[in-house]
Amino acid sequence: MPILNWTGKSLQNPQPATLQLDSIIHPHGLGWPEAIPGNQLILGDNLAIMAALLPEYESRINLIYADPPFFTNRHFPARVGRGEDSRKPREWQLATGYADQWGTADAYIDFLYQRLALMVRLLAEGGTLYLHLDWHADAYARLLLDELLGADNFLNEIIWAYHGPSPIRSAFNRKHDTILVYTKGPNYTFNADAVRIPYNDSTLKTFAASPKAGFGKVPDLNRGKVPEDWWYFPVVARLHSERTGYPTQKPEMLLERIILASSNPGDLVADFFCGSGTTPLVAARHGRRFLAVDATFRALHTARERLVRAGSPAFCVYTSAGQTISTRTDPDFSFEIHDGEIRLVTNQPIAYWEIDPNWNQTIFRSALQAVLPLRSGKINHSLNLGELSIGRHISARAVDESGQQFQVSLK
Ligand SMILES: C[S@@+](CC[C@H](N)C(=O)[O-])C[C@H]1O[C@@H](n2cnc3c(N)ncnc32)[C@H](O)[C@@H]1O
Question: Is the pTM of this model over 0.85?
Protein backbone atom coordinates (compact mmCIF):
# COMPACT_ATOMS: atom_id res chain seq x y z
CA MET A 1 0.00 0.00 0.00
CA PRO A 2 1.43 3.44 -0.85
CA ILE A 3 2.17 5.47 2.30
CA LEU A 4 2.70 9.21 2.58
CA ASN A 5 5.88 10.21 4.39
CA TRP A 6 7.18 13.55 5.60
CA THR A 7 9.93 14.82 7.85
CA GLY A 8 9.32 13.90 11.47
CA LYS A 9 6.27 11.73 10.81
CA SER A 10 5.18 10.04 14.03
CA LEU A 11 1.89 9.92 15.89
CA GLN A 12 1.84 12.11 18.98
CA ASN A 13 0.21 11.37 22.27
CA PRO A 14 -1.28 14.83 22.77
CA GLN A 15 -1.75 16.39 26.17
CA PRO A 16 -5.52 16.50 26.92
CA ALA A 17 -7.07 19.91 27.47
CA THR A 18 -8.68 20.69 30.81
CA LEU A 19 -12.26 21.45 29.90
CA GLN A 20 -14.25 23.94 31.92
CA LEU A 21 -17.99 24.25 31.75
CA ASP A 22 -18.56 27.94 30.98
CA SER A 23 -22.31 28.05 30.38
CA ILE A 24 -25.45 26.05 29.73
CA ILE A 25 -27.68 27.63 27.11
CA HIS A 26 -31.39 26.92 27.12
CA PRO A 27 -32.56 28.65 23.94
CA HIS A 28 -35.67 30.65 24.86
CA GLY A 29 -35.76 28.96 28.28
CA LEU A 30 -36.48 25.55 26.75
CA GLY A 31 -35.67 22.79 29.21
CA TRP A 32 -34.55 25.29 31.85
CA PRO A 33 -33.08 24.45 34.39
CA GLU A 34 -32.71 20.73 33.71
CA ALA A 35 -29.57 18.61 34.04
CA ILE A 36 -26.44 19.26 32.01
CA PRO A 37 -27.23 18.54 28.36
CA GLY A 38 -25.05 16.30 26.17
CA ASN A 39 -24.81 18.78 23.26
CA GLN A 40 -21.51 20.61 23.46
CA LEU A 41 -19.83 23.62 21.89
CA ILE A 42 -16.15 23.74 22.89
CA LEU A 43 -13.56 26.49 22.43
CA GLY A 44 -9.96 25.43 21.94
CA ASP A 45 -7.42 23.55 19.86
CA ASN A 46 -9.15 20.41 18.68
CA LEU A 47 -6.04 18.23 19.19
CA ALA A 48 -6.02 18.75 22.97
CA ILE A 49 -9.82 18.71 23.09
CA MET A 50 -10.14 15.42 21.22
CA ALA A 51 -7.53 13.96 23.57
CA ALA A 52 -9.66 15.16 26.51
CA LEU A 53 -12.79 13.62 24.98
CA LEU A 54 -11.22 10.19 24.47
CA PRO A 55 -11.99 8.71 27.91
CA GLU A 56 -15.71 9.37 27.45
CA TYR A 57 -16.15 9.28 23.68
CA GLU A 58 -13.66 6.76 22.25
CA SER A 59 -15.56 4.73 19.59
CA ARG A 60 -18.78 6.60 20.48
CA ILE A 61 -19.24 9.19 17.71
CA ASN A 62 -21.46 8.07 14.83
CA LEU A 63 -20.61 10.74 12.28
CA ILE A 64 -17.72 13.18 11.98
CA TYR A 65 -17.70 16.00 9.45
CA ALA A 66 -14.32 17.73 9.23
CA ASP A 67 -13.84 20.98 7.31
CA PRO A 68 -10.31 22.04 8.26
CA PRO A 69 -8.26 24.84 6.72
CA PHE A 70 -7.51 23.75 3.13
CA PHE A 71 -3.76 24.59 2.96
CA THR A 72 -4.38 27.77 0.96
CA ASN A 73 -1.72 29.79 2.82
CA ARG A 74 -4.18 32.63 3.27
CA HIS A 75 -5.94 34.47 6.07
CA PHE A 76 -9.73 34.43 6.03
CA PRO A 77 -11.22 37.57 7.59
CA ALA A 78 -14.73 37.61 9.01
CA ARG A 79 -17.32 40.28 8.28
CA VAL A 80 -19.07 41.66 11.29
CA GLY A 81 -22.10 43.81 11.95
CA ARG A 82 -24.31 43.78 8.94
CA GLY A 83 -21.13 43.44 6.92
CA GLU A 84 -22.46 40.38 5.21
CA ASP A 85 -24.98 42.48 3.32
CA SER A 86 -23.42 43.62 0.05
CA ARG A 87 -26.17 46.17 -0.44
CA LYS A 88 -24.71 48.24 2.38
CA PRO A 89 -20.96 48.14 1.72
CA ARG A 90 -20.32 51.20 3.92
CA GLU A 91 -21.44 49.18 6.91
CA TRP A 92 -19.00 46.35 6.29
CA GLN A 93 -16.33 45.76 8.85
CA LEU A 94 -13.60 43.23 8.56
CA ALA A 95 -12.45 41.36 11.65
CA THR A 96 -10.11 38.47 12.34
CA GLY A 97 -11.51 35.19 11.12
CA TYR A 98 -9.08 32.30 10.97
CA ALA A 99 -5.64 31.59 9.55
CA ASP A 100 -4.78 28.93 6.99
CA GLN A 101 -1.03 29.64 6.88
CA TRP A 102 1.68 27.02 6.98
CA GLY A 103 5.44 27.20 6.67
CA THR A 104 5.69 23.97 4.72
CA ALA A 105 3.51 21.24 3.28
CA ASP A 106 4.97 18.94 5.97
CA ALA A 107 3.59 21.21 8.71
CA TYR A 108 0.12 21.10 7.21
CA ILE A 109 0.12 17.36 6.56
CA ASP A 110 1.29 16.65 10.08
CA PHE A 111 -1.42 18.94 11.53
CA LEU A 112 -4.03 16.97 9.60
CA TYR A 113 -2.56 13.54 10.36
CA GLN A 114 -2.49 14.04 14.14
CA ARG A 115 -6.11 15.21 14.14
CA LEU A 116 -7.44 12.59 11.76
CA ALA A 117 -5.85 9.88 13.90
CA LEU A 118 -7.82 11.10 16.93
CA MET A 119 -11.03 11.39 14.92
CA VAL A 120 -10.61 7.78 13.86
CA ARG A 121 -10.30 6.74 17.51
CA LEU A 122 -13.41 8.71 18.45
CA LEU A 123 -15.46 7.30 15.56
CA ALA A 124 -17.83 4.46 16.47
CA GLU A 125 -17.65 1.09 14.72
CA GLY A 126 -19.88 1.60 11.68
CA GLY A 127 -19.44 5.38 11.89
CA THR A 128 -18.60 7.63 8.95
CA LEU A 129 -15.98 10.35 8.51
CA TYR A 130 -16.43 13.09 5.90
CA LEU A 131 -13.26 15.12 5.25
CA HIS A 132 -13.91 18.31 3.27
CA LEU A 133 -10.94 19.74 1.33
CA ASP A 134 -10.10 20.99 -2.16
CA TRP A 135 -7.32 20.60 -4.72
CA HIS A 136 -4.69 22.03 -2.37
CA ALA A 137 -4.46 18.93 -0.14
CA ASP A 138 -7.05 16.31 -1.10
CA ALA A 139 -4.45 14.00 -2.65
CA TYR A 140 -2.40 13.95 0.57
CA ALA A 141 -5.52 13.40 2.67
CA ARG A 142 -6.58 10.41 0.59
CA LEU A 143 -3.34 8.66 1.49
CA LEU A 144 -3.60 9.66 5.15
CA LEU A 145 -7.10 8.21 5.41
CA ASP A 146 -6.13 5.04 3.52
CA GLU A 147 -3.45 4.59 6.16
CA LEU A 148 -5.60 5.43 9.20
CA LEU A 149 -8.89 3.79 8.23
CA GLY A 150 -7.87 1.33 5.51
CA ALA A 151 -8.37 1.76 1.76
CA ASP A 152 -11.14 -0.86 1.93
CA ASN A 153 -13.19 1.53 4.02
CA PHE A 154 -13.18 4.27 1.38
CA LEU A 155 -16.82 4.98 0.52
CA ASN A 156 -16.97 8.01 -1.77
CA GLU A 157 -15.16 10.96 -3.18
CA ILE A 158 -17.88 13.62 -3.31
CA ILE A 159 -17.43 16.57 -5.60
CA TRP A 160 -19.26 19.65 -4.37
CA ALA A 161 -19.57 21.94 -7.38
CA TYR A 162 -20.58 25.60 -7.23
CA HIS A 163 -20.08 28.74 -9.25
CA GLY A 164 -18.97 32.31 -8.64
CA PRO A 165 -16.58 34.98 -9.84
CA SER A 166 -12.91 34.15 -10.25
CA PRO A 167 -9.85 36.18 -11.24
CA ILE A 168 -8.24 33.14 -12.94
CA ARG A 169 -7.57 33.62 -16.67
CA SER A 170 -4.80 31.09 -17.22
CA ALA A 171 -6.59 27.89 -16.15
CA PHE A 172 -10.10 26.57 -15.80
CA ASN A 173 -11.94 28.17 -12.88
CA ARG A 174 -11.52 26.06 -9.79
CA LYS A 175 -15.09 25.66 -8.66
CA HIS A 176 -15.37 22.46 -6.72
CA ASP A 177 -14.39 21.03 -3.35
CA THR A 178 -13.65 17.38 -2.63
CA ILE A 179 -15.17 15.51 0.29
CA LEU A 180 -13.53 12.18 1.11
CA VAL A 181 -15.84 9.73 2.82
CA TYR A 182 -14.59 6.73 4.82
CA THR A 183 -16.41 4.39 7.17
CA LYS A 184 -15.12 2.53 10.19
CA GLY A 185 -15.86 -0.99 9.06
CA PRO A 186 -18.41 -2.47 6.67
CA ASN A 187 -21.56 -2.14 8.82
CA TYR A 188 -22.10 1.55 8.36
CA THR A 189 -25.25 3.68 8.22
CA PHE A 190 -26.38 4.84 4.79
CA ASN A 191 -29.99 6.04 4.64
CA ALA A 192 -30.50 6.11 0.89
CA ASP A 193 -34.21 6.89 1.16
CA ALA A 194 -33.57 9.94 3.34
CA VAL A 195 -31.58 11.70 0.63
CA ARG A 196 -33.35 10.77 -2.61
CA ILE A 197 -33.74 13.56 -5.14
CA PRO A 198 -36.05 13.83 -8.16
CA TYR A 199 -34.87 12.37 -11.48
CA ASN A 200 -33.98 15.09 -13.91
CA ASP A 201 -36.34 16.10 -16.67
CA SER A 202 -34.43 14.39 -19.46
CA THR A 203 -34.60 11.02 -17.63
CA LEU A 204 -38.34 11.44 -17.06
CA LYS A 205 -38.87 12.32 -20.73
CA THR A 206 -36.78 9.37 -21.89
CA PHE A 207 -38.81 6.90 -19.81
CA ALA A 208 -42.08 8.54 -20.86
CA ALA A 209 -41.06 8.02 -24.50
CA SER A 210 -39.82 4.44 -24.04
CA PRO A 211 -40.18 2.30 -20.88
CA LYS A 212 -37.40 0.11 -22.33
CA ALA A 213 -34.88 2.94 -21.92
CA GLY A 214 -33.40 1.35 -18.77
CA PHE A 215 -32.36 -1.85 -20.60
CA GLY A 216 -35.05 -3.92 -18.90
CA LYS A 217 -34.97 -2.02 -15.59
CA VAL A 218 -37.65 0.59 -14.94
CA PRO A 219 -36.68 2.80 -12.00
CA ASP A 220 -39.31 3.98 -9.54
CA LEU A 221 -39.50 7.45 -11.02
CA ASN A 222 -41.78 8.80 -8.29
CA ARG A 223 -39.49 7.70 -5.48
CA GLY A 224 -36.56 9.65 -6.93
CA LYS A 225 -32.93 8.60 -7.11
CA VAL A 226 -30.00 8.35 -4.73
CA PRO A 227 -27.79 11.36 -5.57
CA GLU A 228 -24.66 10.88 -7.63
CA ASP A 229 -21.27 11.55 -6.02
CA TRP A 230 -21.22 15.08 -7.46
CA TRP A 231 -23.43 17.66 -5.83
CA TYR A 232 -24.35 21.19 -6.77
CA PHE A 233 -25.27 23.63 -4.01
CA PRO A 234 -24.67 27.40 -4.18
CA VAL A 235 -21.91 28.70 -1.91
CA VAL A 236 -22.93 30.89 1.03
CA ALA A 237 -22.11 34.10 -0.85
CA ARG A 238 -22.91 37.64 0.17
CA LEU A 239 -26.66 37.67 -0.36
CA HIS A 240 -27.27 34.10 0.76
CA SER A 241 -29.96 33.97 3.45
CA GLU A 242 -27.78 31.79 5.73
CA ARG A 243 -24.78 34.09 5.64
CA THR A 244 -23.36 34.86 9.10
CA GLY A 245 -20.22 36.74 7.98
CA TYR A 246 -17.98 33.93 9.29
CA PRO A 247 -15.52 32.99 6.52
CA THR A 248 -15.88 29.84 4.39
CA GLN A 249 -19.27 29.00 5.90
CA LYS A 250 -20.75 25.87 4.29
CA PRO A 251 -24.36 25.63 3.09
CA GLU A 252 -26.88 23.92 5.35
CA MET A 253 -28.08 21.79 2.41
CA LEU A 254 -24.65 20.19 2.14
CA LEU A 255 -24.66 19.20 5.81
CA GLU A 256 -28.28 18.14 5.58
CA ARG A 257 -27.45 15.54 2.94
CA ILE A 258 -24.45 14.25 4.90
CA ILE A 259 -26.25 14.05 8.23
CA LEU A 260 -29.42 12.48 6.85
CA ALA A 261 -27.49 9.88 4.85
CA SER A 262 -24.94 8.88 7.46
CA SER A 263 -26.63 9.16 10.86
CA ASN A 264 -29.91 8.38 12.60
CA PRO A 265 -31.98 10.45 15.05
CA GLY A 266 -30.34 10.36 18.49
CA ASP A 267 -26.87 9.68 17.01
CA LEU A 268 -23.88 11.75 18.02
CA VAL A 269 -22.51 14.01 15.25
CA ALA A 270 -19.18 15.82 15.72
CA ASP A 271 -17.42 18.65 13.94
CA PHE A 272 -13.97 19.54 15.31
CA PHE A 273 -13.55 22.51 12.93
CA CYS A 274 -17.07 23.84 13.33
CA GLY A 275 -16.57 27.50 12.28
CA SER A 276 -19.96 29.21 12.14
CA GLY A 277 -21.69 26.08 13.45
CA THR A 278 -23.38 24.71 10.35
CA THR A 279 -22.97 21.10 11.51
CA PRO A 280 -24.41 21.47 15.05
CA LEU A 281 -27.25 23.58 13.67
CA VAL A 282 -28.31 20.98 11.09
CA ALA A 283 -27.65 18.08 13.46
CA ALA A 284 -29.94 19.61 16.10
CA ARG A 285 -32.60 20.34 13.49
CA HIS A 286 -32.71 16.64 12.64
CA GLY A 287 -32.73 15.32 16.20
CA ARG A 288 -29.06 14.34 16.39
CA ARG A 289 -26.83 15.19 19.37
CA PHE A 290 -23.76 17.29 18.63
CA LEU A 291 -20.17 17.96 19.68
CA ALA A 292 -18.69 21.04 18.01
CA VAL A 293 -15.22 22.51 18.51
CA ASP A 294 -13.40 25.54 17.17
CA ALA A 295 -10.26 27.38 18.17
CA THR A 296 -11.58 30.91 17.67
CA PHE A 297 -13.95 32.84 19.93
CA ARG A 298 -15.63 34.34 16.84
CA ALA A 299 -16.60 30.87 15.66
CA LEU A 300 -17.91 30.01 19.11
CA HIS A 301 -20.00 33.19 19.29
CA THR A 302 -21.31 32.73 15.75
CA ALA A 303 -22.27 29.10 16.35
CA ARG A 304 -23.90 29.92 19.69
CA GLU A 305 -25.95 32.73 18.12
CA ARG A 306 -27.06 30.49 15.27
CA LEU A 307 -28.13 27.71 17.61
CA VAL A 308 -30.08 30.15 19.79
CA ARG A 309 -31.72 31.81 16.77
CA ALA A 310 -32.86 28.39 15.58
CA GLY A 311 -34.24 27.38 19.01
CA SER A 312 -31.87 24.41 19.31
CA PRO A 313 -32.18 21.99 22.23
CA ALA A 314 -30.10 23.01 25.26
CA PHE A 315 -26.32 22.85 24.91
CA CYS A 316 -23.20 23.41 27.01
CA VAL A 317 -20.35 25.75 26.19
CA TYR A 318 -16.93 24.57 27.36
CA THR A 319 -13.62 26.35 27.28
CA SER A 320 -10.19 24.87 27.67
CA ALA A 321 -7.38 26.23 29.82
CA GLY A 322 -5.60 29.08 28.07
CA GLN A 323 -8.54 29.50 25.71
CA THR A 324 -11.10 31.32 27.80
CA ILE A 325 -13.81 33.43 26.24
CA SER A 326 -12.51 36.92 26.85
CA THR A 327 -15.12 38.22 29.23
CA ARG A 328 -14.80 41.79 30.48
CA THR A 329 -16.58 43.01 33.56
CA ASP A 330 -16.35 46.75 32.82
CA PRO A 331 -18.84 46.91 30.01
CA ASP A 332 -20.42 49.80 28.24
CA PHE A 333 -23.84 48.54 29.16
CA SER A 334 -26.15 48.09 32.11
CA PHE A 335 -29.56 46.63 32.59
CA GLU A 336 -32.79 47.58 34.29
CA ILE A 337 -35.69 45.49 35.54
CA HIS A 338 -39.20 46.92 35.33
CA ASP A 339 -42.61 45.26 35.29
CA GLY A 340 -41.31 41.74 34.67
CA GLU A 341 -39.05 42.88 31.81
CA ILE A 342 -35.29 43.11 31.73
CA ARG A 343 -33.88 45.86 29.55
CA LEU A 344 -30.37 46.19 28.14
CA VAL A 345 -29.20 49.81 28.15
CA THR A 346 -26.31 50.55 25.82
CA ASN A 347 -25.21 52.60 22.82
CA GLN A 348 -22.93 49.82 21.62
CA PRO A 349 -23.96 47.63 18.69
CA ILE A 350 -24.78 44.32 20.38
CA ALA A 351 -24.97 41.00 18.53
CA TYR A 352 -26.17 38.78 21.37
CA TRP A 353 -27.15 38.99 25.03
CA GLU A 354 -28.39 36.50 27.59
CA ILE A 355 -29.62 36.32 31.16
CA ASP A 356 -28.90 33.98 34.05
CA PRO A 357 -31.64 34.70 36.60
CA ASN A 358 -29.81 32.86 39.36
CA TRP A 359 -26.07 33.36 38.76
CA ASN A 360 -24.00 31.01 40.92
CA GLN A 361 -20.70 32.85 40.14
CA THR A 362 -19.28 29.91 38.16
CA ILE A 363 -21.48 28.37 35.46
CA PHE A 364 -23.68 30.76 33.52
CA ARG A 365 -27.12 29.18 33.05
CA SER A 366 -28.60 31.13 30.21
CA ALA A 367 -32.41 31.10 30.30
CA LEU A 368 -33.21 34.05 28.06
CA GLN A 369 -31.41 35.34 25.01
CA ALA A 370 -31.72 37.99 22.30
CA VAL A 371 -29.84 37.68 19.00
CA LEU A 372 -29.29 40.12 16.16
CA PRO A 373 -31.45 38.84 13.28
CA LEU A 374 -29.37 37.63 10.34
CA ARG A 375 -30.56 39.73 7.42
CA SER A 376 -32.45 42.76 8.71
CA GLY A 377 -34.12 44.10 11.82
CA LYS A 378 -32.78 45.07 15.22
CA ILE A 379 -31.80 43.07 18.25
CA ASN A 380 -34.42 43.04 20.99
CA HIS A 381 -33.29 45.24 23.90
CA SER A 382 -35.88 43.89 26.35
CA LEU A 383 -36.70 40.37 27.42
CA ASN A 384 -39.75 39.24 29.32
CA LEU A 385 -38.80 37.42 32.51
CA GLY A 386 -42.11 35.52 32.42
CA GLU A 387 -42.28 32.73 34.98
CA LEU A 388 -38.55 32.66 35.70
CA SER A 389 -37.81 32.79 39.39
CA ILE A 390 -35.10 35.30 40.13
CA GLY A 391 -32.42 34.25 42.61
CA ARG A 392 -30.09 36.35 44.75
CA HIS A 393 -27.93 37.31 41.79
CA ILE A 394 -29.09 37.96 38.28
CA SER A 395 -26.43 38.29 35.62
CA ALA A 396 -26.29 39.36 31.99
CA ARG A 397 -23.75 38.72 29.28
CA ALA A 398 -23.56 40.56 26.02
CA VAL A 399 -21.38 40.19 22.94
CA ASP A 400 -20.75 43.30 20.88
CA GLU A 401 -20.53 43.18 17.11
CA SER A 402 -16.73 42.97 17.21
CA GLY A 403 -17.02 39.71 19.17
CA GLN A 404 -16.03 41.06 22.59
CA GLN A 405 -18.01 39.48 25.43
CA PHE A 406 -19.00 41.40 28.58
CA GLN A 407 -20.70 40.29 31.75
CA VAL A 408 -22.34 42.22 34.58
CA SER A 409 -24.20 41.03 37.65
CA LEU A 410 -27.03 42.73 39.46
CA LYS A 411 -27.46 41.76 43.07
C1 LIG B 1 -13.13 25.92 6.88
S2 LIG B 1 -13.51 26.60 8.44
C3 LIG B 1 -14.97 25.71 8.93
C4 LIG B 1 -16.23 26.32 8.39
C5 LIG B 1 -17.48 25.62 8.88
N6 LIG B 1 -17.63 24.31 8.28
C7 LIG B 1 -18.72 26.45 8.62
O8 LIG B 1 -19.68 25.98 7.96
O9 LIG B 1 -18.75 27.60 9.06
C10 LIG B 1 -12.24 25.90 9.42
C11 LIG B 1 -12.35 26.21 10.90
O12 LIG B 1 -11.36 25.45 11.58
C13 LIG B 1 -10.97 26.18 12.72
N14 LIG B 1 -9.67 25.63 13.19
C15 LIG B 1 -8.47 25.68 12.57
N16 LIG B 1 -7.53 25.05 13.30
C17 LIG B 1 -8.17 24.56 14.40
C18 LIG B 1 -7.75 23.82 15.53
N19 LIG B 1 -6.47 23.42 15.68
N20 LIG B 1 -8.66 23.51 16.48
C21 LIG B 1 -9.96 23.90 16.34
N22 LIG B 1 -10.41 24.61 15.29
C23 LIG B 1 -9.53 24.94 14.33
C24 LIG B 1 -10.89 27.61 12.23
O25 LIG B 1 -10.97 28.54 13.31
C26 LIG B 1 -12.10 27.66 11.30
O27 LIG B 1 -13.22 28.16 11.96
Answer: yes
